[in-house]
């Protein structure tokens, strides 16, 4: 394995750790904002990243709770997805790349990626229904506008997971015959 490949893998591992930490902080901030809004309704005017859901909170706290729950869940699953990616980099052995642990991690990544896409699509539809009822929730869309990309990525990662499982089977058979 070349030093360039080693460097690239370490670089991607650092980037995935930074992304995981950033998404974890974002999830924590969103949870804090949600709880803080329950005690101080005026805080709904300037939520995380300038999101203004004060109109929705003032008119219907249940709708606000559902919408904000979607935001928190999508962000939390994205954070966990990047945690799984960091685990792949920690477990990856390029000399013998097909391992049971990496195979399971890739499968989990495909499932969580699909979950993000599915929950994002549901949240998008829910936000659209709130807009039809006259609520201004456009600022919340930034958390799931990429749901279709996650659905497509889930399909690609699922195929990669299946290829990886087959590679693991072939590597096991090869180890048995040698």
Could you please describe the fold and organization of this structure?
This protein is an all-alpha fold and 178 residues long. It has one domain (3-177). Helix content is 78%, strand content 0%. It is built from five helices and no strands. It is elongated. The model has no long low-confidence stretch (mean pLDDT 90). Pfam families: DUF2975 (PF11188). Keywords: Membrane, Transmembrane, Transmembrane helix. The chain crosses the membrane at residues 12-36, 62-89, 109-127, 147-164. InterPro entries: DUF2975.
Which secondary structure elements does this structure contain, and how are they paired or packed?
Blueprint: H1 3-39, H2 54-59, H3 61-91, H4 100-132, H5 147-177
Number of helices: 5
Please summarize the sheet with the most strands: none
The parts where pLDDT drops under 50 for at least 5 residues are none
Helix and strand succession?
Answer: HHHHH
Tell me the span between the first and last alpha carbons: 23 Å
What would you call the shape? elongated
- Gyration radius from CA atoms, angstroms: 20 Å
Summarize the structure.
Helices cover 78% and strands 0% of the residues.
Defining key terms:
single chain, 178 residues, mainly alpha, 78% helix, elongated, DUF2975 domain-containing protein, transmembrane helix, transmembrane, DUF2975
